[in-house]
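Hi there, hope your week has been kind to you so far. Thanks so much in advance, here it is:
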Amino acid sequence: MRNYFFICLMAAAVAFTIPACKKNQINQADDAAAITGQAPTMPTAIVEAACPSKGWASQNGGTTGGGDVAATVVTTYAALKSAIQNTGVKVIQVNGTITIPSGGRISFQDQTGKTLFGSSGAKIVSTDQSKDNSGLMYIKRCNNIIVRNIIFEGPGAYDVDGQDNVTVDACNNVWVDHCEFRDGVDGNFDIKNTSDFVTVSYTKFAYQKSPKPDGPGGSDDHRFSNLIGSGDNVTPDRGHFRITFVRCWWAQGCVARMPRVRFGKVHIVNNLFNSTASKNCIQAGFESDLLVEANAFENVKIPIDLMENNATAVQVKNNLFTSVTGNTSGNGVNAFTPPYSLTVLNASSVKATVTASNGAGATLSGNVCSSL
């Protein structure tokens, strides 16, 4: 009887040990998969539900991306393009540097519920400055999309009416978090054509390469970072472009459009502007409704550009202006009231937060939650 009891105890111990061993083997397999570029056997990212969207992306049902599924790991252009265009792939992990070939801008269209994120140091680059063959990615008619922790690098600004690094076109519920957009040909990251419920958080915009001169567009310097709305006459955009820029950084090299806005209700909160190349920072365009709150402006020109004075509202609230020249005021009209809650830092704390080691840019180890 004693021997039988001992055998039962041993069996129970083995039963509890096997799952633990199996979990350890799975984790080792995931580590190996990340190294070899093969698809992991289990999720390499944390559960998306643990990363609640903030700002405008939290509205209209929220933004959750691809959810808690196994990530497809990609290391080549062909694999990245295939995974993006495969509607069955819901979470994509970019490892290393992927170069977009000339004319190979990836079309990311007509999808719902997808996450694209980078492991530490992940980068998507292009070296083509031509009108038709430039650009990295075009996201169109998509819903519930998360893009996180990736550097998007173009070949440098050139006024050739070329492509942006990334464009969001007619999409709803998009969350861009902890990314870096730099050296786009036409712009770094633009939002157009009735896109709505977008949050851009902890993201860095910069131009590190000298602009190419003598472009056919007539400008020697097209380091214009972010355009929201493509024209005053595009009236279907009315009622859309509800966008939050929070804890972002318009860094060295940015000349203008940080961002330039038409029509939208845009909350620009707790961001850092410190490009000494600046000619205009926030640009309030046609029928824009802007809440410019608790940002830090340092060594820039024209922090608030009222342009043709045809904005609906430009409310400037609790900002910090240090060694700036040009307008720092709104147009005397109160902006919209955000329907969401955010932790709003004092403007004096913004620079330290945004420039910290885990601040704006692709500063994460992967698909990790941001503190907002």
Remarks:
- The helical segments are 2-36, 77-85, 347-354.
- The first strand starts at residue 72 and ends at 74.
- The chain has a mean pLDDT of 89.
